[in-house]
Amino acid sequence: MNFEMEQFRLDGKVALVTGAIYGIGFAIASGLAAAGAKIVFNSLNQDSVEAGLEGYKKAGIDAVGYVCDVTDEEAVQRMVKQIEKEVGVIDILVNNAGIIKRVPMTEMSVEAFREVIDIDLNAPFIMAKAVIPAMIQKGGGKIINICSMMSELGRETVSAYAAAKGGLKMLTKNIASEYGEHNIQCNGLGPGYIATPQTAPLRETQADGSRHPFDQFIIAKTPAARWGEAIDLAGPSVFLASDASNFINGHILYVDGGILAYIGKQPN
Ligand code: NAP
Ligand code: GCO
User: Fold this and answer.
1) Cα 59 to ligand 1 centre (Å)
2) Which of 140, 152, 175, 242 could, after both became Cys, cross-link 186 (CB 3.0–4.6 A)?
3) Model confidence over 217-237: pLDDT tens digits?
4) Residue nearest to atom 12 of ligand 2 (CA)
5) Closest residue CA from atom 3 of ligand 2
6) pTM, entire model
7) Which residues span the membrane (predicted)?
8) What is the CATH number of the domain that holds 130?
9) Is 83 inside a domain boundary?
């Protein structure tokens, strides 16, 4: 069997990207659309769905949006059944929706900790549980969980997020283990530090016009010497969503400019 570039195409596939009205999710959806996928997304309310649809229309993408909180299993089950009826069986699920709370652990309420775990870890479980049965019936599918460098490393103030993303790495490996025989490939994408609304507070220009200390820190820690852009995730997502990665399962693909490989530039 010869390799064909067609293996990177997603024509005829239905891709659900959660929380994809902007940021990394929107960029991933744009990449999947460019490879031929039909894009479906969800957000928390009708206004944000409408905003998302406007954004996709401006990008020339004919997307379909649904209101759904990914932590609500009944709502997720209803949404997946509605998508299967109105668009088609979900071939590709990207668990992108996520939040972060930056609070010193001893000052973090258990409610705040639980909220991060609920959205960043429990929801990918809920979403995968909802789409896998139809994927099995169809003969296979792709699940891509958006992990993080915090699936591997910790840092001050992100205990809940790191616990969730570390758990998401292992949930990825377990879905791969449990459903690989049904031709379902479940892999993770681990973005490095990406310039999106989620990291905007870490990049704010200081009152004296200087760069945020954390901004300078990340530049020194990243061999690419830059923050990632959301679009840097598009190509790797197409790869993991396509037939080109059919023998890759349970893998976390880090898209981090090399930060996990590098001790960091020596301060001047
Ligand atoms: P973002 O800009 O904050 O966008 C997150 C999206 O998730 C928003 O559209 C948000 O909707 C949605 N969302 C949050 N809770 C939801 C819920 N319960 N149900 C449905 N949608 C929900 O984040 P991002 O930077 O694009 O990050 C996207 C993913 O990449 C997250 O999982 C994040 O942890 C991960 N990640 C980000 C970075 C980075 O450096 N930016 C690096 C590694 C991993 P609303 O707008 O309505 O709140
Ligand atoms: C932080 C950042 C990181 C990034 C990302 C890194 O506060 O350290 O928000 O957590 O979002 O997860 O991969």
Assistant:
1) 20
2) 175
3) 999 999 999 999 999 999 999
4) 148
5) 193
6) 0.98
7) 20-41
8) 3.40.50.720
9) yes
161 is catalytic: yes
Backbone φ, ψ for residue 64 (5° rounding): -120, 135
Distance 98 CA to ligand 2 centre (A): 11
**Residue 107 burial (C-beta neighbours within 10 Å; 0-12, 13-18, 19+):** exposed
Specify the residue with its C-alpha closest to ligand 1, atom 16.
97
Q: Which of 66, 161, 179, 193 is catalytic?
A: 161
For the chain, what is the domain count?
1
**196 touches ligand 1 (CB under 6 Å):** yes
Is the CB of 97 inside a 6 Å radius of any atom of ligand 1?
yes
Query: Is residue 11 a part of any domain in this protein?
Result: yes
Domain encompassing residue 23: 5-194+227-261
The C-alpha atoms of residue 80 and residue 82 are separated, in whole angstroms, by 5
- Does ligand 1 come within 6 angstroms of the Cβ of 25? yes
Residue 48 near ligand 1, beta carbon < 6 Å: yes
Is 47 part of any domain?
Answer: yes
| SS3 labels along the chain | CCCCHHHHCCCCCEEEEECCCCHHHHHHHHHHHHCCCEEEEEECCHHHHHHHHHHHHHCCCCCEEEECCCCCHHHHHHHHHHHHHHCCCCCEEEECCCCCCCCCHHHCCHHHHHHHHHHHHHHHHHHHHHHHHHHHHHCCEEEEEECCHHHCCCCCCCHHHHHHHHHHHHHHHHHHHHHHHHCEEEEEEEECCECCHHHHHHCCCCCCCCCCHHHHHHHHHCCCCCCECHHHHHHHHHHHHCHHHCCCCCCEEEECCCHHHCCCCCCC
**Measured in angstroms, how far is the CA atom of residue 22 from the centroid of ligand 1?**
8
pLDDT above 70 coverage of the chain, percent: 100
